Task: inverse folding
């Protein structure tokens, strides 16, 4: 079957995604014109940040003016990548405010730890920059809402780093689901199954000389530095990350919600989550099973259900894929593997179609830049799209911590039946210049 791009556009517009970024008119988003190089900056040059630097350095339509990181060694390494690719150096700093004060910078890539994602994005939007922000787009539900509102208020483009949204193989699979090839979809499931490492146990220590630890903490509460907290390991700590459900899991959650066709927040969520395997300092569950229920669809009157399961101690290939999503329809099922491909089965398990293909980061960058330039009308991963997926992450983690079924108001985005859980929709901040307004 041939994909139908018109149907896909209509779906995204129904999700109220295109409107969030096109309020000011697509042709006016890139003030300098559509054909010249765009001046950009990368904030956060760790693993994924350096990946962005490498990909962006290979492009001829952008000029990396700034690299920002609180780790002097990492930012120097990223600067060398730019120099080798472009033959010139980028400015470096540990203070993102220097980057945002540069009026020549039109767009920023934010690849910081999770607790900096929304604060940095909000500052960038208020400084007049377009924003590409890594997933999850927020550290908590309230931050996600602030990001969506800021994108609408400023008229700037916000794209979340869920690159599956711009990957042709994934897009075709989702299109087949939305076009009804497996019937009506009432349930979707995503899973994250792989073997992670033990982070060990540690005592507070002294930050290395090349790390500006106070700036790294940013708006988060002040806690002592620990050697098993950086780099990358921050994602297993409540104050800074969202666990692996917010790391790898959110990719599959996002794709799962896309094919399920939901465009609102869930109305009920529950999650069992525990540390069944690791004996270490990580605070998030290594094993989770989450269920989210969506209010009846106005068109069909039927509820929809989304399931997420995680085992980060088991490299088990479930339904052919370590990480994946499944769409259960009334006439068949489509199973999709994260960055691998998909298979579509009809009645009695007959394989009807399949395709392979890896995630396309460069295509995601192109979609972001083309949206800014007004070359395309659909931003594939808007703030709202990212917020919907991140909310499943946050509510699942909250339910795992407090227990029970959480009643969630999809409009007000508050938990209505559990006082302890309701407090966790937001977070505690220290007195810091980066604390988001309105939290």
Result:
């Amino acid at each position: 079957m041939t994909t139908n791009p018109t149907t896909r556009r209509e779906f995204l517009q129904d999700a109220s995604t295109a409107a969030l970024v096109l309020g000011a008119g697509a042709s006016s988003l890139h003030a300098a014109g559509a054909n010249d190089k765009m001046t950009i900056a990368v904030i956060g040059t760790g693993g994924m940040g350096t990946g962005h630097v490498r990909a962006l350095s290979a492009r001829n339509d952008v000029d990396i003016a700034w690299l920002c990181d609180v780790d002097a060694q990492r930012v120097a390494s990223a600067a060398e990548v730019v120099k080798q690719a472009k033959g010139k150096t980028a400015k470096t700093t540990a203070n993102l405010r220097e980057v945002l004060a540069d009026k020549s910078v039109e767009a920023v890539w934010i690849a910081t730890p999770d607790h900096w994602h929304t604060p940095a994005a909000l500052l960038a939007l208020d400084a007049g920059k377009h924003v590409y922000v890594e997933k999850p787009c927020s550290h908590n539900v309230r931050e996600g809402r602030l990001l969506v509102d800021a994108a609408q208020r400023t008229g700037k483009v916000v794209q979340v780093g869920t690159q599956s949204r711009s990957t042709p193989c994934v897009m075709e699979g989702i299109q087949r689901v939305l076009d009804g090839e497996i019937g009506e979809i009432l349930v979707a499931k995503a899973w994250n199954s792989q073997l992670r490492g033990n982070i060990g146990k540690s005592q507070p220590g002294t930050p290395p000389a090349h790390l500006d630890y106070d700036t790294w903490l940013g708006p988060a509460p002040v806690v002592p530095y620990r050697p098993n907290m950086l780099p990358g390991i921050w994602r297993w700590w409540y104050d800074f990350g969202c666990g692996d459900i917010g790391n790898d899991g959110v990719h599959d959650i996002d794709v799962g919600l896309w094919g399920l066709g939901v465009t609102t927040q869930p109305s009920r969520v529950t999650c069992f989550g525990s540390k069944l395997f690791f004996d270490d300092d990580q605070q998030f569950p290594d094993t989770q099973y989450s269920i989210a229920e969506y209010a009846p669809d106005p068109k069909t009157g039927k509820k929809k259900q989304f399931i997420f399961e995680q085992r980060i101690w088991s490299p088990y290939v479930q339904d052919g894929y370590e990480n994946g999503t499944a769409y259960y329809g009334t006439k068949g099922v489509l199973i999709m593997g994260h960055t691998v491909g998909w298979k579509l089965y009809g009645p009695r398990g007959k394989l009807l179609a399949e395709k392979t293909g890896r995630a396309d980061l460069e295509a995601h960058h192109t979609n972001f830049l083309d949206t800014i330039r007004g070359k395309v009308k659909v931003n594939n991963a808007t703030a709202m799209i990212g917020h919907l997926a991140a909310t499943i992450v946050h509510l699942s983690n909250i339910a795992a911590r407090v227990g029970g079924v959480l009643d969630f108001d999809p409009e007000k985005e508050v938990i209505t039946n559990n006082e302890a859980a309701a407090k966790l929709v937001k977070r505690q901040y220290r007195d810091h210049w980066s604390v988001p307004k309105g939290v």
Summary: The chain has two domains: 5-163+363-382, 166-198+233-359+388-423. The mean pLDDT is 92.
